[in-house]
User: What shape does this take?
Amino acid sequence: MNAPEKVKQYDRAAQTVGNIVYLEHFNVIHDDQRLATLFYVVGLGGTRDPYLFPGLDNMWVNFGRTQAHLPSRGPKPRPEVLRGTIGFVVPDLDALKTRLQLVAAELKRIAPEAKTRFSWRDAGGAVEATCPWGNRVRCHAPAAEFGRIDLGLVYVDFDVPPGSAEGIARFYREVMLAPAVLKESRAVVDVGRNQRLVFSETSTPIPEYDGHHIQVYIADFGKPYEWLKARDLITMEADANEWRFQWIVDPKDGRKLFQIEHEVRSMKHPLFNRPLVNRNPGVTNVSYAPGQDAFRGTT
Assistant: This one.
């Protein structure tokens, strides 16, 4: 008689998706759409959204199912710099390096007087770049830790003050109802299937908050709102499907820990799961191949 076959055991908790189901975009104001196009479209390989904000006062750039929002409203917009590092997955790091070399040459040609903060380097397994205004980006090749994503925004890693990470993890766990853990001096918050928010303690002085924001979709739209509303922490009542807050506080004692505006949308928001156009940045008029215009990877 054959021995009974062993049933494979799985970590079922690893498949749990918390209340924050999606990190869709980050938003930073800039003052020159030429430079933004060079960095985010020509360099990083994103695709300008062809349907929304086609003018000169804003630009949405698609990366898979995620975006960078880059408004430049007003006669003299004040550029914003996210206090941390923006993490992307891109399909080909070698192609990315080639494009960033082109960006460096083009910036010298069109903006020699601007003295931009643009730079990039091969970080060994990743490519780190800085946009013309100082926003830090880290690009990774597709990997198991990011699931099946070949192109997209996969994390934002914020610089936060010493001693704040534990309370930040508690805030996301207890208030936003998202899986969050403390790993040494970092709060790591799970977002949806394969994204995360990270808050890394640093002794380096942190610049004053300048108004940039991130946008998330959440499943339970009511409980976090009521908690924040009761403590006068809601900063905007946008409409039936959106509200915003800026301060992350420790639910244990109410201490303010870190300021970053969260644009919080419900899953009934009309933009939830909106299909986004993504081009194949490897196709040019010289290398054109019929049927290869669109990005074909997993987003």
Observations:
- The domain at 16-266 is CATH 3.10.180.10 (2,3-Dihydroxybiphenyl 1,2-Dioxygenase; domain 1).
- DSSP finds four helices and 16 strands in the chain.
